[in-house]
Amino acid sequence: MQAVRLERRGDVAVLTIANPPVNAIGPGVVASLVSAIESFESDRSYTTLLIHCDGSTFVAGGDISSFDDPNFSAAPFNSTLARLEALDRPVVASLHGSVLGGGLELALACHWRVALPSTKLGMPEVKLGLLPGSLGTQRLPRVAGIKLALDMISTGRTIGAQAAKDAGIIDEVRDGLPLETGLAFAQELISRGDGVRRISALITPLDGIEADFFANAANDARTKKSFYPAAAAIVQAVQASTLPFKGGAAVEARLFEELRQSRESMALRHLFFAEREAAKVPGLAKDVKTRPITRIGIVGAGTMGGGIAMNFANAGIHTVLVETSQAALERGLGLVKGNYDASAAKGRLTAQQVSQRMTLLTGSLDYAALSDCDLVIEAVFENMALKKQICVRLGQVCKPGAIIATNTSTLDVDVLAQATGRAQDVVGMHFFSPANVMRLLEVVRGAQTTPEVLATVMQLARKIGKVAVVSGVCYGFIGNRMAEVYMREAEFLMMEGATPPAIDGAVEALGMAMGPCRMLDMAGIDVGAKTVIEYGLAGGLPPDPSYRAVVQQMFQLGRFGQKTGAGYYHYDGRKPVDDPETARIARTLADVHGIAQRSDIARQEIVERLLYPLINEGFKILEEGIAWRPGDIDVVWTAGYGFPDHKGGPMFMADALGLGVIADRMAHYASTRGNAYGYWTLSPLLASRARGNQQLTDAKAGRS
Ligand code: 3HC
Ligand code: NAI
Predict the structure, then answer these.
(1) Confidence at 698, pLDDT banded by 50, 70, 90
(2) For 668, how many CA atoms within 13 A lie in the half-sphere containing its CB?
(3) Which residues pair with 53 in a beta bridge?
(4) Is the CB of 301 within 6 Å of ligand 2?
(5) Best label site of 6, 286, 477, 647, fewest CB within 10 Å?
């Protein structure tokens, strides 16, 4: 099928873009647009040019994959837009779906814009570490004003059709089909005798813009978004819209090109595709049948159970929570209601929505309430014996074909699957806390999980707005297994004399949302310690008496983190404060375990010791087939653990650092720290890539 067609409808030339799935504009589409415009130019019998798109959306942007081409240039599309705008007969864009980035830039180069009521418009390039590079920073402020344009471009948020009309971005909102609506609009234009209008000929209005507006905005961008060069560049480009059009366009072109080649944008583009790739289950037949999910059961209405339930209620799915006591049930449902009320108080939900959602949530003390559920998720304490009991019970009460899922963060899903007596129906659904907020869902495929169960859960994840990544079964799956080595080194560093603020500060300076000590204090030292103890009982721990000694000692002392006012830190309200008691505990443990204390632990050492073993574990996870793709690991860490998205996740970062560098530093720590327990032993995959001077993502090296 041709990506661009030009057809006659009376005296209107209809230009249709048909480039599924989202009509993204790459070099091929640009070339076809040029031919279509030339045909229109040369045929004077047309009165009007109407541009619309086939499929579910107007152009959703430039083709993001084309930005990785070293020879990419925005110039061909930009000159095409200039040629379109320069036409001497009216050009109408009929918009529907998601009019984003290059799509909105195309629309703004047209003379008139009409949109269906459900249309969403925006310039989300900032989310890819870019700015709109096809004159969006120049045309949008000319019609919408500087404040709204800067807000839309800086946040990447979309606005609805009516808001776009109110802001002067489009001319009309009309119901109907895109082609018919566009044609009717064009006919009316002709009969009214309305002609061409060019946004590039307008002057960006400056009324209401204070003298220090741009200086303040630039300062904000530099200080609050210091990891994202696009933020300051956007302010600069929008400010340049106050220049004559050509001058502003030159500023935008230069900044766009700088950003396109920046590490941050490459990292964010990598994550854009990695998130979408993660949703694809290799080898899953296209026609695999998913199971209908209309009623869900959750066992345990604690921190996780309640949050998980909210996801389903938000999606309109009836959910029943089962607990051991009325008090626990009421506490759980009360917390959920409290969360909804807080959203309502912020204006994010109406009172009616809160009550609709609460009606979808019911509670019971009887497992029989689970007998008609299509999916039951257990979210009881992290204890193998208890979870096994629950699984036996679920195997008995759930109806045939019901999916049984566990929210365990570390335990062996295959053991739990066996306990149900129907391992084919069992899968891990590892939500992250707070489960109603965090985007990540690790979907753990057991040895016997059937493809249709996996496909059903992946589809459900999308429905509730989660980014789902499939993991194989191992201790902690992808995320917590890697977090374990990260915490291990954090504690060794503590025993060697580094304070929690020094440890956290080192990785937070790279953009990590929270360092390891703050993270565990928030999740609960008790939760972390119990996991380590449980792992030890399962025989998983190295025979190292100093392994995670700090967390176990803190647990003994009742220092559970934020919830008890002290953990690695002492808490002043919710504010973490360095606590000399932690240093004392660490020093005592260092003495017990014969660990030498030092006062000269450099920031670079902290970063390397926290991140390189974590990356090494990621390589092991790949070579064992626990994760299918490096990008899956990157999605887990950026969506679930606050790893900086501008670094693209740990595996993307590893390639950027150079695998040889990581291998060398691992060898350095093996010799300086000792390697009795294999902590610094390289994964064979990392070792071979480093030796071959290859990248993890080298397709020629076998994995892409
Ligand atoms: N370029 C290339 N591929 C794109 C794309 C784009 N701009 N937008 C979406 N796709 C692809 C996805 O990779 C996916 O491919 P797959 O099926 O092979 O995995 C497919 O289209 C469908 O995408 P989603 O799964 O995301 O579909 P949804 O229906 O959930 O969402 C959407 C649709 C809202 C359009 C969403 O895809 C989206 O937000 N896309 C990105 C929009 C964007 O960032 N536009 C700006 C691009 S940069 C630009 O325009 C620069 C310009 O200023 C020069
Ligand atoms: P929690 O202690 O807040 O809640 C557990 C709930 O299970 C309690 O309300 C308890 O009354 C209930 N329960 C215990 N036995 C029961 C039974 N036989 N039948 C019904 N209900 C029963 O624990 P939390 O934090 O919600 O953890 C639950 C699970 O989620 C664990 O497996 C944990 O590892 C996992 N998880 C926890 C995360 C967290 O940050 N808290 C993050 C991701 C997973």
Answers:
(1) low
(2) 10
(3) 17
(4) yes
(5) 286
Ligand number nearest to the C-alpha of 406? 2
The pair of three-digit structure tokens given for residue 365, joined into one six-digit string:
């003390």
Which of 329, 390, 391, 409 is the best mutation target for the ligand 2 pocket, counting ligand atoms within 8 Å of the beta carbon and taking the most?
A: 409
295 forms beta bridges with 318
CA angle, corner 552, sides to 547 and 556, nearest 5?
155
Q: Which two tokens stand for residue 310?
A: 């909210």
Question: 701: pLDDT confidence band, cut at 50, 70 and 90?
Answer: very low
- Cα gap 616→626, rounded to integer Å: 14
Q: State the chain's mean pLDDT as an integer.
A: 96
- Residue 422: C-alpha distances to residues 367, 385, 393, 405, 418 (Å): 18, 18, 12, 12, 7
- Per-residue model confidence as pLDDT tens digits over 190-234: 999 999 999 999 999 999 999 999 999 999 999 999 999 999 999
Structure token pair of residue 696: 């993890």
Helices (H) and strands (E) in the chain, counts: 28, 19
Question: Which residue, among 524, 521, 523, has the nearest Cα to 494 in the 3D structure?
Answer: 521
Is the CB of 695 inside a 6 Å radius of any atom of ligand 2?
Answer: no
Would you say the pTM of this structure is higher than 0.90?
yes
Dist. CA 252–CA 237, nearest whole Å: 5
Helix (H, G, I), strand (E, B) or coil at 569: coil
pLDDT at 71: 93
**Proportion of the chain in helix, strand, coil states, percent, rounded to 5:** 55, 10, 35
What three-state secondary structure class fits 444? strand
pLDDT of residue 535: 85
Spatial strand order in the sheet of 403-406: 361-364, 318-322, 295-299, 375-378, 403-406, 426-431, 440-445, 467-471
> Which residue type is seen at 677?
Y
Name 377's bridge partners: 298, 405
Tell me the one-letter amino acid at 419: A
Mind telling me the catalytic residues? 105, 125
Q: Check if the beta carbon of residue 87 is closer than 8 Å to that of residue 37.
A: yes
Q: How far is the CA of 157 from the centre of ligand 1 (A)?
A: 15
648 — alpha (psi -120 to 50), left (phi > 0) or beta? left
DSSP string, 387-442: HHHHHHHHHHHSPTT-EEEE--SSS-HHHHHHHHT-GGGEEEEEE-SSTTT--EEE
Q: Is residue 279 helix, strand or coil?
A: coil
Among the atoms of ligand 2, which is closest to the Cα of residue 306?
Answer: 26
Residue 537 pLDDT grade (very low, low, confident, very high; cuts 50, 70, 90): confident
pLDDT, mean of residues 402-419: 96
